[in-house]
Amino acid sequence: MKGDPEERAVQIGRYLVQSGATVRAAAQVFGVSKSTVWKDQCRLQHLAPGLWQEVRAVLLYNKAQRHLRGGETTRCKYLHAQHNHAD
Prior knowledge:
- The chain is mostly helical and 87 residues long.
- It has four helices and no strands.
- Helix content is 86%, strand content 0%.
- The protein is elongated, with a radius of gyration of 17 Å.
- The model has no long low-confidence stretch (mean pLDDT 86).
């Protein structure tokens, strides 16, 4: 989804608040890069401050949780590799 950056910023912001998605997931859904999602959310701060506050809360939560997600992914990776090695 390309188009008007302001409109896209609001749409992505609403999506992030409704779904609680990560920046990476939102970028994939909207067909843009992670950098574009971040730039759009900076725009949102001036376009819709109320929505931006909600988006910011979601992004801060996701940032606080990312080390847990990464650790779980690594654990699963090694368990999978160990399982395949045993065969």
